[in-house]
Amino acid sequence: MNGNYDEIKIHLPQKADYLGFIRLSVSGLASKMGFDIDTIEDIKVAVSEVCSRLISQGSEACADFDITFQLYDWGIRAILSVQNHDGRDIFEGESGDFAKAIISTLMDEFEVSDDQNCIITMGKKLGD
């Protein structure tokens, strides 16, 4: 699922105040790419869930995060990253398992890196 793509980067504070902005941005990008309304909603739900979890895990050490949208001919990929945050606690417990299951169902690609930096990658193909 690689190839040439356009890339849009957004750097945001870890504040719930910006969730609406994120949802509007991902909706506009997915619409521009030609996704149908139901798929756009699925992508918004998945991205919003991850952002909400990142925001709820926020601390002074990681006061902001980045979202990179890669727009391919085949679909869209969203990469969310937080520096100096290992990411394992974002999907802990029963609610975390449920969230991962929902996101995995809504998206074609879903991966969580639990390295020194938290990187969550989600992708959706056009036509699926």
Give a verbal description of the structure.
This protein is an alpha+beta fold and 128 residues long. The protein has one domain (5-125): 2-Layer Sandwich (Heat Shock Protein 90). The chain is 38% helix and 31% strand. It contains three helices and five strands. It has helices at residues 19-33, 37-56, 93-106, and strands at 5-13, 64-72, 75-82, 109-114, 118-125. Strands 1-2-3-5-4 form a five-stranded antiparallel β-sheet, covered by helices on one side. A hairpin with a 3-residue loop joins strand 4 and strand 5 (118-125). Helix 1 runs antiparallel to helix 2 and helix 2 packs antiparallel against helix 3 (93-106). The longest helix has 20 residues, at 37-56.
Brief write-up:
By secondary structure, this protein is α+β, with helices and mostly antiparallel strands.
Brief descriptors of the model:
128 residues; alpha+beta; Heat Shock Protein 90; 5-stranded antiparallel beta sheet; 5 strands
Major sheet, described briefly? 5 strands, antiparallel
What percentage of the residues does DSSP assign to strands (E)?
Answer: 25-35%
Please name the CATH topology: Heat Shock Protein 90
Number of domains: 1
Rg, please? 14 Å
Structural class: alpha+beta
**Number of helix segments?**
3
| Average of pLDDT | 88
Run of helices and strands: EHHEEHEE
Identify low-pLDDT runs: none
Percent of residues in helices comes to 25-40%
CATH superfamily: Histidine kinase-like ATPase, C-terminal domain
